[in-house]
Amino acid sequence: MNDIRDYYKDNYNEDGRMTRNPLEFLRCKEIISRYLTAERMEIADIGGATGVFSYWLAQQGHEVHLLDYTPSHIEQAHENGVTLGIELATCVVGDARSVPHADAQFDLVLEMGALYHLQDAADRAQCLAEAHRTLKRGGVAICEGISRYANLFEALGENLIADPRFLPLLDENLTTGNHNPGDLPYFTTAFFHSPAQLRAELDSAGFVDVKLIAVEGFAAARDVSAVLTDERQRELLLKYLRQTESNTDLLGVTSHIIAVGRKE
Question: Which residues contact 113 (CB under 8 A, 6 or more apart)?
Answer without folding.
Answer: 47, 48, 49, 144
